[in-house]
Amino acid sequence: MAHPKRPLDGIRVLDIATFIAAPYAAAILGEFGAEVIKVEQPGGGDTFRRFGSITERDGDSLMWLSEARNKNSVTLDLRKPEGRELFLKLVARTDVIAENFRPGTLEKWGLGWEELRRVNPGLILLRISGYGQTGPYKDRPGFARIAHAFGGLSYLAGMPGDVPVTPGSTSLADYMSGLYGAIGVLLALRHRDATGEGQVIDLALYESVFRALDEIAPAFAMFGKVREREGAGTVNACPHGHFRCGDGKWVALACTTDRMFARLAEAMERPELADGAKWGLLRNRLAERADVDALVGHWAATRPRETVMELCLDFEVPAAPLNTIADIFEDPQFQARGNLLEVADAVLGGVVVPGVVPKLSATPGRVDHLGPRLGEDNARVYGGLLGLGEAEIAELKSKGVI
């Protein structure tokens, strides 16, 4: 059966980046039809291949298999003159380049924006780095943990007065920046369609984090307010947090309005709690937040999570289980939405990865294959796309260029 056309069919992306942020942007584009050519260093390839749980398929990690999906791998040493010239030939046939080297690295190799634009005036260059291409910190190295800290997120994560923690123990800033990077590419493609002109997308990891911190910037500017760690709750709503149930499992409750609390009081068989004189008004609940949370906590602790969830859903109280990954694999919602996608691999068999987001009704994205083997597309790209002969490819390989 023929696959439906995807919105980015015909777009070619050169992914010369490493690890997560810019490569994630390229992966999103690839899910929706773009041809993504992953350019890796000859010999070892992208160090991301060895990051995370290692598999029996050439030692590639599960992170690589999942996040490099749909990509084609070629090897090329951009630091060598022959590699630079070969790369520029690819650039001439490319729509987008995704890179995340430290600012100045491409320029040092003779592959800065002016040179790339000279070869391809319609080129779009996505540049993601720790601190962006400008500013006094542009030369500093940056990773997700550093971005979480510098962007203001880590200070907010953790229990009040305790050690700030990494939010979610995941590379959130990388994934957020990849999303913003993909948005930037789509906007730039729209502009190019109208004008024929390419452009540079300059994105810092910390900026993606800072952009997601709701009102903390205007609140500080207007009132001098510095938000502190609030733990599982929030100072803006109550009850609004995580509560341990009688079976040791956890549930999240979010009563952001008085009506929601009234419904929770009904579920708890304590409707009098929602009287205006008691906790029916948000200001009263916030003033006695510890007591409210303690009472709700006691109610949850005397019931298994399944019962707590049933009562909340029956009374339309916003609630959800705090799922482990084991819970997620058993949850029918994840199954129904295709959030867990099994992709076949010749060596490993079926590998489960996160599904494609978002879902488009007419032109849905898809995962065609997992992350590629190192250099497996050299012949197709250098021979088929650039027209190099077998002898030329063999010579480049002997010189360590590819």
UniProtKB/TrEMBL annotation:
- Gene3D superfamilies hit by this protein: Crotonobetainyl-coa:carnitine coa-transferase, domain 1 (3.40.50.10540), formyl-coa transferase, domain 3 (3.30.1540.10)
- Give the keywords, sorted: Transferase
Q: State the InterPro entries in the record.
A: CoA-transferase_III, CoA-Trfase_fam_III, CoA-Trfase_III_dom3_sf, CoA-Trfase_III_dom_1_sf
Q: Per UniProt, what is one Pfam family of this protein?
A: CoA_transf_3
Task: Please provide, alphabetically and separated by semicolons, the GO molecular function terms listed in this UniProt record.
Answer: transferase activity
Q: What is this protein called?
A: Predicted acyl-CoA transferase/carnitine dehydratase
In which organism is this protein found? Paramagnetospirillum magneticum (strain ATCC 700264 / AMB-1)
